[in-house]
Write a structure and sequence with these properties.
Strand content: 15-25%
Number of helices: 13
Helix content: 40-55%
Pfam families: FAD_binding_6 (PF00970), Globin (PF00042), NAD_binding_1 (PF00175)
CATH topology of the largest domain: Globin-like
CATH architecture of the largest domain: Orthogonal Bundle
Shape: globular
Protein name: Flavohemoprotein
EC number: 1.14.12.17
Largest sheet: 6 strands, antiparallel
InterPro entries: Cbr1-like_FAD-bd_dom, FAD-bd_FR_type, Flavoprot_Pyr_Nucl_cyt_Rdtase, FNR_nucleotide-bd, Globin, Globin-like_sf, Globin/Proto, Hmp
GO molecular function: nitric oxide dioxygenase NAD(P)H activity
Radius of gyration: 22 Å
CATH class of the largest domain: Mainly Alpha
Distance between the termini: 38 Å
Order of helices and strands: HHHHHHHEEEEEHEEHEHEHEHEHE
Length: 419
């Protein structure tokens, strides 16, 4: 436990961290990779180039300072990141490395403001936070290994089938090379994927949502090809999977993880709202409900550029035609002429609150959404304006966690979820 004096010191740094947080984390990552280039095998360099990881860590440091006297308030976010760490194989011995370089980056950026007392207090605080992560992750590693069909680390899987779902999304059906049982998972969870790409100096680790229900003899991940755009580098792993990984090839996979999961205890209607490849974890939840013959009212709302970019559209449409309790709704930003002729969408443009209120009977439902960050901010804002209780709002970030409103999310240094 931190002493009252050290808690007071940590809290006194909140305004400084708010102003200089990203400068500190930018310097931290420079130091980290200079001193420990082996960690380039863990981090997604696209997120580094875009500044997303630096921003996420700055938010983490700020949140830790703001809640240092009651870390229970950020426990849910600690668990979220712990799941990511386990899927990436983060080890206890890596935490002191992060701590050392973070404190030195603080000292360099803040200069005289980072007194010996401040650094000492932050050193103790980091140790407490690191111990919390290490303890939670040890339990998760044990659970992953000891569950039926489970395993530790990475396991080899064969690409049994490769299916094009849209112009930019392809599904990979993965079966274990050893032909043994595979672990069940909670709908909404993801897999860690490790690939060695020719010409790349470092191992590439990514996390991809499982896009089908549990209990089958395969896992399915559905990956979007990320083309290079202004201020958006190409997806190294996603493009490699699309262009070079074929049926019969072998990739290494870590056990299912993640806390964005379907609430199976609630009796409320369920509303899924997806944008683009954000459909993948929601497909797992949707298929799970359909296959369990759930009697809940289910609304599946998907937004895409147009029909050419709409994955799983026939599957969802067919299921909704088979069951009275399922309704499928589609929003296309720029529908094609074929989309118009086939009347294959319900709204043109973007999803907004007025439209949601016109197609949903009420705000009394469990809402699950996922997609690009601007999309998620719009959906979150609409649901809050509609007075949906926070406990009924569930969402997943692809990549380092961002923020959907003025509140700061907690995201430690060793984190990476890239779809």
């Amino acid at each position: 436990m931190l002493s009252p004096e050290k808690i007071k010191i940590i809290k006194s740094t909140v305004p400084v961290l708010e102003e200089h947080g990203e400068a500190i984390t930018t310097r931290f990552y420079q130091r980290l990779f200079e001193n420990h280039p082996e960690l380039l095998n863990v981090f997604n360099q696209a997120n580094q180039k875009q500044g997303r990881q630096q921003t996420a860590l700055a938010n983490a440091v700020y949140a830790a300072a703001a809640h240092i006297d009651n870390l229970e308030e950020i426990l849910d976010n600690v668990k979220l990141i712990a799941h990511k760490h386990v899927s990436l194989g983060i080890k206890p011995e890596q935490y002191p490395i992060v701590g050392e370089n973070l404190l030195k980056a603080m000292k360099e950026v803040l200069g005289d403001a980072a007194t010996d007392e401040v650094i000492d207090a932050w050193s103790d605080a980091y140790g407490i936070i690191a111990d919390a992560f290490i303890g939670i992750e040890a339990d998760l590693y044990q659970q992953a290994k000891e569950q039926p069909g489970g395993w530790a680390g990475y396991r080899k899987f064969v690409v049994d089938k490769k299916v094009k779902e849209s112009n930019v999304i392809t599904s990979f059906y993965l079966k274990p090379e050893d032909q043994k049982q595979i672990a069940k998972f909670k709908s909404g969870q993801y897999l860690g994927v490790k690939v060695e790409i020719p010409g790349k100096d470092y191992t590439q680790l990514r996390e991809y949502s499982i896009s089908d229900s549990s209990g089958k003899d395969y896992y399915r991940i559905s990956v979007k090809r990320e083309d290079e755009l202004p201020n958006h580098p190409e997806g190294v792993v996603s493009n490699y999977l699309h262009s070079h990984v074929q049926e019969g090839d072998v990739i290494e996979v870590s056990a299912p993880a993640g806390v964005f999961t379907l609430d199976t205890e609630s009796n409320l209607p369920v509303v899924f709202i997806s944008g683009g490849v954000g459909i993948t974890p929601l497909m797992s939840m949707f298929n799970s409900l359909v296959e369990s013959n759930s009697k809940k009212d289910i609304y599946f709302i998907h937004a895409a550029i147009n029909g050419d970019y709409h994955a799983f559209k026939d599957h969802v449409k067919q299921r909704s035609s088979e069951k009275e309790n399922i309704k499928s709704l589609v929003c296309y930003e720029k529908p094609t002429e074929e989309d118009r002729q086939n009347q294959s969408f319900d709204k043109e443009g973007f999803i907004d609150l007025e439209w949601l209120q016109s197609v949903l009977p009420s705000n009394e439902a469990k809402f699950y959404f996922c997609g690009p960050l601007p999309f998620m901010k719009a959906i979150y804002g609409a649901l809050k304006k509609w007075n949906v209780p926070e406990e009924n709002i569930h969402y997943e970030f692809f990549g380092p966690a961002g923020t959907l409103d003025v509140e700061v999310d907690f995201e430690p240094a060793l984190s990476d979820h890239d779809e």
